[in-house]
């Protein structure tokens, strides 16, 4: 009985009071609850590539139940999750490191390689966390422009790789462009480059493109190449706010990286991730909603004849033809947050998929903007 009262209070604390907490399926009640959050803030947030449908009802329950263990350090549960991930990926558990969001993994790597004070090669624009952290240790970044298709320019990276390269960073699919490299091209590139230096492949959006023959580089980690892969529970699993992700690399590399981590993850996030990892229905639901939202974006871009690239993620990148500062201010005034500037693409905008009604509202404001 005591236990039940505590849980009811926790439901209140977590903002799900007044609704019957559904344990299976996707609840309309919970969707309405997240929408209320938007309305309270008076803003539609399409700026950070989050999944507004998460966490699923089952994962919410797992988080609430995890409070029973919140007085304990999470180490044993983290080990359990690492085993689970390792089993699915077909690697040894010593090759997986769970981190506080994949950002912690990116920063730990930035620290490990940045301190060598050589250079890291990456394309621009891309997801910056690893490079920004490496720069704190006086590491130079050799920035390569994207190719004409807004993809990572693998040929130019190869050309620039030298004895002075401590690491090559690849984001695939790339944030903010949403573009994906061809499987064979990336595999050949990584195999060849990893003979000379370490290759880091950020696979944060992996789950959105698994049906498109996504070229995960975990295959190369398994074959013993000098490659590190990062993944996250922040995107399709809808857990951006609880901070949990992971790295896959050789056991030796994982040991080195572990020493560079700081906070790690926590008990609630670990339980959330374990529950989310097993739940196929929410995964499929999120995938379908994301597809639906991207179609709405593509339709309005086509209608308005705006240039864009096909996305393999939960956001789209399109050419506005006006400076992003002016464009985002207009949308902010209308209650919609869009992505930040991504130099040198100042007249492009990254827009995240949100709930269908929010994406439709964005399309409506976009039509008016160009009318
Ligand atoms: C490419 C990429 N990598 C990593 C991250 C970090 O995600 P998290 O720290 O939430 O796992 C993001 C977040 O948007 C991203 O876009």
Descriptive report:
The protein has 371 residues and is α/β, with parallel strands linked by helices. It is built from 14 helices and 11 strands.
H-E order: HHEHHEHEHEHEHEHEEHHHEHEEH
CATH-assigned fold name of the largest domain: Aspartate Aminotransferase, domain 2
Low-pLDDT residue spans: 1-25
Specify the overall morphology: globular
Distance N terminus to C terminus? 61 Å
- Can you identify the CATH class of the largest domain? Alpha Beta
The percent range for strand residues is: 5-15%
Radius of gyration, taken over Cα atoms and rounded to an integer in Å: 21 Å
What structural category do the secondary elements indicate?
alpha/beta
The helix content, as a percent range, equals 40-55%
Count the domains: 2
Return the CATH architecture of the largest domain: 3-Layer(aba) Sandwich
Topology:
Elements: H1 2-13, H2 28-41, E1 44-45, H3 57-66, H4 75-89, E2 96-99, H5 101-114, E3 119-124, H6 129-135, E4 140-145, H7 154-160, E5 165-171, H8 183-193, E6 198-202, H9 218-222, E7 227-232, E8 245-248, H10 251-258, H11 267-277, H12 280-303, E9 315-319, H13 324-333, E10 336-337, E11 348-352, H14 356-370
Parallel strand pairs: 1-10, 3-4, 3-5, 5-6, 6-7
Antiparallel strand pairs: 2-8, 7-8, 9-11
Bound molecules: pyridoxal-5'-phosphate.
């Amino acid at each position: 009985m005591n236990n039940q009262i505590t849980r009811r209070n926790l439901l209140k604390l977590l903002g799900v009071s007044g609704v019957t907490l559904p344990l299976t399926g996707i609840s309309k009640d919970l969707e309405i609850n997240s929408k209320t959050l938007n309305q309270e803030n008076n803003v539609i947030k399409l700026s950070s590539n989050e999944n507004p449908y998460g966490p699923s009802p089952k994962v919410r329950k797992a988080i609430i139940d995890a409070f029973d263990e919140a007085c304990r350090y999470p180490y044993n549960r983290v080990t359990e999750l690492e085993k689970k991930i390792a089993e699915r990926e077909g690697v040894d558990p010593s090759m997986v490191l769970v981190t506080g969001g994949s950002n912690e993994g990116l920063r730990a790597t930035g620290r490990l390689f940045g301190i060598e004070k050589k250079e890291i090669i990456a394309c621009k624009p891309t997801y910056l966390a690893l490079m920004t952290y490496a720069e704190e240790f006086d590491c130079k970044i050799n920035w390569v422009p994207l190719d004409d298709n807004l993809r990572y320019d693998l040929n130019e990276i190869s050309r620039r790789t030298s004895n002075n390269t401590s690491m090559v960073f690849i984001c695939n699919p790339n944030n903010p462009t949403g573009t994906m490299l061809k499987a064979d091209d990336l595999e050949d590139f990584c195999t060849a480059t990893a003979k000379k230096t370490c290759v880091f492949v950020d696979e944060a959006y992996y789950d959105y493109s698994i049906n498109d023959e996504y070229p995960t580089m975990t295959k190369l980690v398994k074959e013993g190449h000098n490659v590190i892969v990062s993944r996250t529970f922040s995107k399709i699993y809808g857990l951006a706010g609880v901070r949990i992700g992971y790295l896959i690399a050789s056991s030796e590399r994982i040991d080195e990286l572990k020493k560079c981590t700081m906070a790690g993850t926590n008990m609630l996030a670990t339980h959330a991730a374990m529950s989310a990892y097993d739940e196929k229905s929410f995964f499929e639901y999120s995938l379908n909603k994301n597809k639906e939202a991207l179609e709405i974006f593509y339709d309005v871009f086509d209608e308005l004849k705006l240039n864009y690239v096909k996305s393999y993620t939960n956001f789209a990148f399109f050419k506005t033809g006006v400076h992003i500062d002016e464009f985002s201010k207009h949308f902010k005034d209308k209650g919609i947050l869009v992505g930040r500037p991504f130099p040198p693409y100042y007249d492009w905008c990254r827009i995240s998929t949100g709930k269908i009604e929010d994406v439709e509202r964005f399309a409506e404001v976009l039509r008016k903007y160009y009318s």
